[in-house]
Amino acid sequence: MTDSEPGVPVTGTARRMFELLEPICLVTFFADECNEELAALGHRTYWDGYFASRAAPLGRVPAQVVHAAFYNFADGEAARHIPSAWETIPPEASVAARERGSAASLRRILGEQLADSSGLVRAADLTTKAATNAPTEGRVMYAGMRTLAVPSDPVARLWHSATMLREHRGDGHIAALVGMRIGGTEAHVLSALASGIHPPESFGRIHHLPKERLVAVMDGLRERGLVDAEGRFTDAGRETKRRIEALTDELAAPPFDALSPAELDELIAELEPITARLVAAESQ
User: What pLDDT was estimated at residue 11?
Assistant: First the structure.
């Protein structure tokens, strides 16, 4: 655990929990089972299933609301999938398929011994305790997830609660981006540069966007002094990215206040072998 002086936010805990829980959530996007379950319902493409299942906890909201809540997709992207992805497939069915597929992926990757272990059950219980005890105000995606029933199966419960915490963190990350006046596409550029990708326009999440759109984004970042003429971080850009990540960690910390120091230490210890197995398999 990370110690801190009185009055100083403990963001180390939030960052450590992100590192431990993120590989659990990533099976939804990287492994085959979730996509197969969604395709079996009738979703035509990966992105139909993605938008339908992730947005479903919000209810049958229009594409504009999904675009606002997801934040970092290009203009018009949500509208290509919402509400058409729900017209013949109920949102509730997509949510259930996402849960089944994600839990199946976890069981396959972890193997019977780890998936059925008492340590995983304890990790699921403690993760759920944290995930169901944070304020929902200002947390649109997290609040939507909180309306769903928590699964009884430990593997599914671990995935579900880790995903709740992921959405909670994501809501806070969006708040940090908005506060720093960083738009969705701009956020991808900063993430690409932080990951060593250059030119950042080649990043997989944005390389398909219209060239004129990418030029406008890069020009805007240059005008603000966040990137240089070659499209690399300036000192100001690097500091902006650091501040966004620090605030994201700070805003992600409240759920873990529900755990005692001993429980938090126990959760970290129980998650470490689970995460190690998932990282080795690249969550797929």
Answer: 57
